Amino acid sequence: MAPESSLSGDDSGYSPQRRQRDPALSLHDRTRRADSPALSHDDYTVAWICALSLELTASRAMFDVVHENLVAQRGDDNAYVLGRMAHHNVVMVALPGAYGKVNAATVSTHLKRTFPNVTTTLMVGIGGGAPGEANMRLGDVVVATRVIEYDLGKAIGDGQFESTAGPKRPSHQRLSAEPWIHYGGIASGDSVNKDAQKRDAISRRLNTVCFEMEAAGMMDNLQCLPIRGICDYSDSHKNKRWQPYAAATAAAYARELLETIHLPRMGSRRSAIRPPQKKTCSWLLDHPTYLDWLDPDKQEYHHGFLWIRGKAGAGKSTLMKFLYSEARKVNDDSSVISYFFNARGEYLERSTIGMYRSLLKHLLVHMSTTEWHQIKYDTYLRSVFESQGQGCPGFNELKQMVRCAVLARENRPLIFFIDALDECDEDDVRDMMCFFEDLAEDASEEGIELHVCFSSRPYPYVSIRTRLLMTLEEEAGHTADLARYVNKRLRIQDQYRAEFESYILDKAWGIFMWVVLVVDILNKESNRGGLALRRRLSEIPLGLSQLFKDILTRDEENPQELRRCILWVLCAQKPLTPDQFRHAMWAAGLRDGRVDNVVPDAYNPRSSNALVISSSKGLAEVSRSDHPVVQFIHESVRDFLVRDRGLQELWPDLGFEWEGPAHESIRECCELYLTTTFRLRGAGPFQDPIFCKGYRATDYIMLYNAPEMTAEERIASSCVFLDYASKEILYHSNLAAPCVPQQAFLARLFGFERQTDIDYGKVVSVPVPRYKHADPFRNKTILETFTLLRLDNLIRLALKAMGLTGTNAQMAELHRKAFFAAIQHNHSHLSLQSIAPLLGLPSLVYEGEAIITTKRITWKFGIDSIRGRTPLSWASQEGQRTLAKVLILNGESLVEKDSQGYTPLQRAILNKHTAIVRLLSESGLDMGTRDVAVTIHQELRSGNFEMTQTLLKVYDGYGKPDGAAWIVSSLLPQAIGAAPRDIVDLLIRHTANDNKTHLRLLYPLRTAIIHGSIRMVAILLDRGVDINARDDWDEFPLLTAVRHNKAIKARMLVERLTARQLAAQLGHDDLVRILDDIDSRQPRTEG
User: Fold this and answer.
1) How far apart are CA 1041 and CA 1023, in angstroms?
2) pLDDT confidence band for 811 (50 / 70 / 90)
3) Most buried among 38, 448, 520, 940, using CB within 10 Å?
4) CATH classification of 27-260, choosing from 3.40.50.1580, 3.40.50.300, 3.30.230.70, 3.40.50.720?
5) pLDDT per residue over 233-242, tens digit each?
6) How many H helices and E strands in the chain?
7) Is the peptide bond before 460 cis (omega within 30 degrees of 0)?
């Protein structure tokens, strides 16, 4: 038995040398082979080509699942191996007979014809290294950035060879990951090179790091990425000793690469849609509206937009899948792109950010070299790439990248099919419409033929200015499709069959889903003898919602099972697999003793599918996809239950706030499953104390290639619901918390005797998933863990409990650690939602503004950069004004220094956030200190005039001793020479009117005469500067102007001088005495 371990402890039980497989793949998945169901040729999107049998042997070991073979196209002699690797369906093939470029070209031609949906091709095997400057060792991996045929060219005399081959570059999508491997050119030829001197000459001439014999032939037919393990150094010392190891390292890297280019469940919604009934949907291909949409000559009338609208369940998604498939038959793969929103899927499947990511991936995969360089050197995108680092671009950046990728196309039409807009947020759809309208306008200006087809229900009320519109229920072709379906599927051999068909079509109102359900009901009644067909048909209600209610309430068989099924499908954090669903239903049945006490068999598709259908009374199904999950047969079922309040009609005890009790029921199910003593079939009683006294199930989920299956491994492989239950139990507890107290459960979970004993500042182990490279939950308190898992209701519960028991200092420290835990490990607006309860707010919006603007956040920081920081210090650094405002209102100190000695004001100034500076001033921060004065001087010297102006406006030291002296002696002369006029005016206005002002302004006046404007001189003269005094250079202002040839400024000074002052400054002493004598003779006037 494995020792008990916590999830926050060391991963000592896992060898770092083992390849970390996808945790979503169970032990059974990784050992399953040819008994897996066969897919179609269209399901395979990755080609993996090897030259030698030993390369194929190493590559086959990378499969997670091996699929049944498929019949190849006529004339295709390739022997394929099919399977699943990571989240991709992969077709693997080795070159038959001989290796070389010609043979590789033949294999790739046949492969492309047999598997038309292949978008990613890898050439995996061994190669000879060209060490050169690279520190290359045997077994290292080389990934090609280009492939050059080194023996394609002509001899030009004197033993020289001129290459005529151009470099062939692999698809750029496949170059996105960068582990510790060699990147460089690969030289491809028809013969094995064993000459070191020839190797070095070719390597220097073509700048290559590897030699091989197949990639060049492959690149002419399939855009592939060659990956080569180095087995020798392409010289006379060749031997086969290193070939198996080099083949294995290349295959291992190729698999890791496939794991990195996966977008979770991308395309799963489209693949789950059943194909249309034969001879249906084809009417649209000849419809005048559809033909006008594709006609480039009529683009100006509709701007390339076609909108297909229809009621819920009318068959829009089936029609869109048909149109997408037909468009791909007459266009190349790069020209037809689809996205099917899925409200029942994960976040990316039902959001526009997932759509933009999917569209961008497809566009980048199929880019030519010229198009790639055009988008690569776009000024805006370069700034995005530089600012994002390793993270995914933000929402606006993704949109701009899609725009650039579309506009970079070289005279190739582009067709988008985007389905189910109503399954996405309405505001996001409006924003998306604006994006596509602007994109269509830009594409038209660039001469790019762009077509976009949308489908949705008649709501949300979102539209586009210029488009073609088609309403499905009003189309005769759609009505004909309904009639074909009824005619073929209705199994009633009755003289009144035509009457039945007419009634169904008349009451269908164009809703295909209603027709499908009604036909199924009548067929079942017919199978029972058909004695009550007419009565049953008359009892069937009109409209989908009423029909769903009728199906669910018609009999009282297994009502508790129905309730559990509906709540699981409706409330699961992510869709359950069929086997997980079966085990979840078994755990729920344990409470009332309605199931066996022996855990059900794992991986029993027939039993799982039967349970889904029977327990939901046909309203749930197992999706038809490579990764099947349990879901409602249509989104309209969810609409009936939630929007139309079907849940309250079925189970009034749930009440209007049904989410809390529903999630509490699921939480109890998870807890029961995790704490059950499992009895395995055929194994006798087995009791593991770990399962009885704690929650450590996740420790047994991630098992890697164990030589023998231990008891714990048998539990993990047999109890398929452990993974979900251990990871998501806190998720359901959080959603139940507003309605159902959770303290007793949390005490059991964290090992406290009473719920009043829970210490939320204690470092504990919790059931959370392991992380491949780092464990963010290591050494975290309960409150930090809640924050990391974004459990907002449990955070509020913890803060409330801590407020009753903890001291202010303890509260502040725990609060600070939880705040930075959220900031450090969550990199999107969605995952920052745990910040709100820490701030005592209901949401991430305060006074109509987002508390945190994620596009401003600098994510590149580690634990050292936030150690000793305060939340206000961080908010000031990042320019998060609303967050800083909330923190100040919550009592954060305005002057507390962080571990690096910076105050929030200094952080704001260093990062040029003027709005934060103004906020701190408005919040009562003393802005008249010497530190502020010094900072103003530094900002002015550095040329940051915006910050200088902001600081001058809030500076409160002008009335203090020497405040004006500091301005006129230091800032003003410097500003006159370089700063904008507004700053100079601001400084002059703040000079004090005391008995020294007229002398202090002499230095600024000298600067203004030499470097400033006439207006500056006039302002200083009006301010009262003494122009009859000498400055620090022992010079009168007038003489300064004359000496620097400033005639206008000199005239301004002369006009303000008396005759005597002028004579004195010019050195005419005789004239001064005459003027003094004249002045002395003037009679005095009496007042």
Assistant:
1) 19
2) low
3) 940
4) 3.40.50.1580
5) 878 777 788 8
6) 51, 22
7) yes
Kindly state the tokens that stand for 282: 């084809």
Q: What is the rounded CA–CA span in Å between residue 557 and residue 1086?
A: 122
Pairing of strands 679-680, 684-685: antiparallel
Q: What is the pLDDT of residue 300?
A: 84
Identical fold, 27-260 and 268-472 = yes
Task: Give per-residue pLDDT as tens, 693-736.
Answer: 333 333 333 332 334 445 555 565 677 888 788 888 899 999 99
Contact assessment for residue 303 and residue 534, using Cβ atoms and an 8 Å cutoff: no
834/788 Cα distance (integer angstroms): 8
Label residue 85 left, alpha or beta by phi (over 0 means left) and psi (-120 to 50 means alpha).
beta
C-alpha–C-alpha distance, residues 611 and 621, integer Å: 10
Where do we find the tokens 């500091």? 966
Delimit the domains of the chain by residue range.
27-260, 268-472, 477-540, 559-589+598-740
Amino acid at 42: D
Superfamily classification of domain 268-472: P-loop containing nucleotide triphosphate hydrolases (3.40.50.300)
Distance CA 652, CA 806 (A): 41
In this predicted model, what pLDDT tens digit does every residue of 1016-1050 receive, in sequence order?
788 777 777 778 888 778 888 888 888 888 888 88
Q: Where are the beta strands (DSSP E) in 51-202?
A: 65-66, 80-85, 88-94, 120-129, 141-149, 153-157, 160-163, 182-188
On whether the CB atoms of residues 341 and 267 are closer than 8 A, the answer is: no
Average the pLDDT over each of 193-197, 438-442, 799-803, 975-979 and give the range with the smallest value: 975-979
Q: Helix, strand, or coil here: 232? A: strand
Structure tokens at 981: 């006029």
What CA–CA distance (Å, rounded) separates 287 from 299? 17
> At which residue do the structure tokens 């990391």 appear?
788
Structure tokens, 799: 């803060």
State phi, psi for 226 to the nearest 5 degrees: -75, 130
Whether the CB-CB separation of 967 and 989 falls below 8 Å is answered with no
Is there a contact between 396 and 855 (Cβ–Cβ < 8 Å)?
yes
For residue 886 the two structure tokens come to 């909330």
Taking Cα atoms as reference points, which of 761, 747, 836 lies closest to residue 791?
836
In this predicted model, what pLDDT tens digit does every residue of 179-190 receive, in sequence order?
Answer: 357 777 888 877
Residues forming beta bridges with residue 456, ordered by sequence position: 309
Q: Amino acid letter at 957?
A: G
| Residue with the two structure tokens 């929030």 | 904
Beta-bridge partners for 337: 416
Phi first, then psi: what are they for 107, rounded to 5°?
-60, -45
Neighbour-count burial for 781-796, b at 16+ CB within 10 Å, e otherwise: bbbbbbbbbbbbbbbb
Please spell the DSSP secondary structure of 200-211, one letter per residue: HHHHHHHTEEEE
